[in-house]
Specification:
Layout: H1 3-13, E1 29-32, H2 37-53, E2 58-63, E3 72-78, H3 87-97, H4 102-115, E4 124-130, H5 136-147, E5 153-160, H6 163-174, H7 183-200, E6 213-216, H8 222-233, E7 241-244, H9 260-267, E8 280-284, E9 291-297, E10 301-305, H10 307-327, E11 338-342, H11 348-357, E12 361-364, H12 369-376, E13 381-385, E14 391-395, H13 397-407, H14 416-431, H15 439-453, H16 457-461, E15 469-474, E16 483-485, E17 490-493, H17 497-505, E18 512-517, E19 524-529, H18 533-547
Parallel strand pairs: 2-4, 4-5, 6-7, 6-8, 11-12, 11-13
Antiparallel strand pairs: 1-3, 2-3, 8-9, 9-10, 13-14, 15-19, 16-17, 18-19
Helix pairs in contact: 2-3, 2-4, 2-5, 7-8, 7-14, 7-15, 10-11, 10-14, 10-15, 13-14, 17-18
The protein binds 2-acetamido-2-deoxy-1-O-phosphono-alpha-D-galactopyranose (NG1) and zinc ion.
2-acetamido-2-deoxy-1-O-phosphono-alpha-D-galactopyranose (NG1) binds at residues 26-27, 66, 345, 367-368, 386, 388, 390, 518-521, 525.
């Protein structure tokens, strides 16, 4: 095919709206779906170029706007390893998205190919999927037009998938040892790992009654994805979940509307359908890459277990299971490093718990999972979560080798607790979707820990008590005038504003506050913590007034 003719046709079908300046934010391109057609076309071209630049390794494209309202949509690119797009290509993506003529676009595409020293007809493979939004089909068609611009592109649609499933499919198609690159492969890997983990932990089916679990699917893709996994697992699976907000009735089940992890976390209340239950509840977000838990306590009312609580339980379980091997002399005390990576939005009580009670290393990064993921990779066990429930655990090759060495140790035969600990730890890299935060995989890991430890959701909530806090947002004329440093905890610009914030925080008991521009919405976020809810609210309000 003639590349110039394809570009000309594409620019004509998918013209760039004049008024819009596109940027690649915390979660890729994200905005009103009506403004994204031209972006999709260009992302198709760029995804093909990225794959060509990597010798034809499969890259991914996910069309989703996660927890945002139905009229929005978005798109992000996935590297062959399952990671987020590298920053160098984010820049090219932005330049292409903002190009309005055939010449501009042709030049950018040629420059990107030249920078990678590849020919336009080098082989490429791109897997692409989408969430449940009504704009998905139209936007995927624009993406496909982009994928068809350059020759020799193997464009592989995977249809309706969660964001973490797309990451899994991409990673598995490049690394066969990671898993089988199909949705059955995804389900079967998690089912097997979860089942074996429970058996090793003495909590197989029938050994422990974990009580009822409700899962709020946010009326998004997480509901059918989980239903498919449970169906594949069959009736003997040691997890029985009732899925609500499953999107089944389009009249009432509106994506992310009074449903899902973001609703629960932002409003600090259960979705209406789960307002009454005292049972354990998990809530996914619209593309199922986040999960939080909650329950309605007869005495304490609504209790949220957010990403910080998930990270704390996972770190607690992993470090104490590892300690069994250290005590048995099978692993040296400092052989495997463990850290928890948090952002400024992590509740201060979680950081104190992790550092002082668990003795864990805690590191802070900027907001956005790509930053947390990157920091986590520096450790043998890197637990990372945003407070909103987005996170996972990554394990180093040394972790895998160490556990393999321990598993081969003949002393294990006479040390059942150490053998059980070694088996459990050896299974974790398969239970946890290491490619990216995954609501289903994170939930299975948490469910396994609760069963193995015989913990109720209330026991888990009691790990530590959150400091009262308030997260609010302020609409400003231009959020780009706000710049931050020190993992988003301090403002650099506007000049002088950080001093003013410090002056407001200083007199507040256990006070903490920071301001940063959102990467996904046209707002500035304000977060405050204090020793009482009133004080946290007052501090957030005072800081917000500085920002207006
Ligand atoms: P922004 O809008 O940049 O604050 C939000 C979340 C992030 C992350 C991204 C991606 C908060 C405070 N911010 O980013 O943690 O999840 O969306 O979806 O929750
Ligand atoms: Zn999401």
């Amino acid at each position: 095919a003639d590349i110039t003719a394809n570009l000309t046709a594409g620019i004509a079908s998918y013209p760039k709206p004049d008024s819009v300046v596109y940027s690649y934010g915390t979660a890729g391109f994200r905005m009103a779906a009506d403004l994204l057609d031209s972006v999709m076309f260009k992302v198709g071209i760029l995804a093909a170029i990225r794959s060509k630049a990597l010798g034809g390794a499969c890259v991914g494209v996910m069309v989703t706007a996660s927890h945002n309202p139905v009229p929005d949509n978005g798109v992000k690119l996935v590297e062959p390893s399952g990671d987020m797009l590298v920053p160098e290509y984010e820049k090219i993506a932005v330049a292409m998205a903002n190009a309005s003529t055939v010449d501009e676009l042709a030049e950018l595409a040629a420059a990107a190919l030249a920078a990678a020293s590849v020919a336009p007809d080098a082989p490429a493979a791109v897997r692409y999927g989408h969430d449940t939004r009504p704009s998905a089909n139209r936007l995927v068609a624009a993406l496909e037009a982009g994928l068809a611009v350059l020759p020799a592109v193997d464009a592989i649609p995977v249809g309706l998938v969660s964001t973490p499933q797309l990451h899994y499919l991409v990673k598995a198609s490049n690394e066969p040892q990671f898993g089988i690159a199909t949705l059955d492969g995804y389900n079967n890997k998690l089912i097997a790992a979860y089942t074996q983990l429970l058996e090793a932990g003495g909590a197989g089916n029938g050994e422990f009654d974990a009580g009822k679990l409700f899962v709020d699917g946010a009326n998004g893709v997480g509901a059918p994805a989980l239903a498919a996994l449970l169906a594949a697992a069959g009736p003997d699976f040691a997890l029985h979940a009732s899925i609500v907000n499953d999107g089944s009735d389009p009249e009432v089940n509106i994506l992310n509307h009074e449903a899902g992890a973001d609703y629960v976390k932002s409003n600090q209340m259960p979705p209406p359908v789960l307002a009454e239950t005292a049972d354990r509840c998990a809530a996914f977000d619209g593309d199922a890459d986040r999960v939080v838990y909650f329950f309605n306590s007869p005495s304490a009312g609504f209790v949220l277990l957010d990403g910080d609580k998930l990270a704390s339980l996972m770190a607690d379980y992993i470090s104490s299971t590892l300690q069994v091997l250290v005590d048995a002399g099978l692993v040296a005390a400092d052989e495997l490093s463990l850290a928890v990576i948090q952002t400024a939005y992590a509740n201060g009580a979680s950081t104190t718990y992790l550092r002082n009670e668990l003795g864990a290393t805690v590191e802070f990064t900027k907001t956005g999972v790509k930053h947390l993921h990157h920091a986590a990779l520096a450790y043998d066990i890197g637990v990372y979560f945003e407070a909103n429930g987005h996170g996972t655990v990554v394990f180093s090759p040394k972790y895998v080798e160490t556990l393999a060495r321990v598993a081969a140790n003949p002393d294990l035969a006479t040390a059942p607790p150490a053998a059980a600990a070694a088996t459990q730890l050896g299974l974790l890299p398969a239970v946890v979707n290491q490619a990216v935060g995954d609501a289903i995989s994170d939930m299975l890991f948490i469910e396994a820990i609760l069963r193995i430890r015989r913990l109720s959701v209330a026991d888990w909530a009691a790990l530590y008590t959150e400091h009262p806090n308030r997260l609010t947002k302020v609409a400003v004329a231009d959020r780009t005038v706000f710049t931050t440093t020190n993992a988003d905890q301090q403002l650099v610009e506007p000049t002088g504003m950080q001093d003013a914030i410090d002056a407001l925080v200083a007199p507040v008991d256990a006070g903490r506050a920071f301001v940063r521009p959102s990467g996904t919405e046209d707002v500035v976020r304000v977060y405050a913590e204090a020793s009482s809810q009133d004080a946290a609210d007052a501090l957030a309000l005072a800081v917000a007034k500085l920002v207006y």
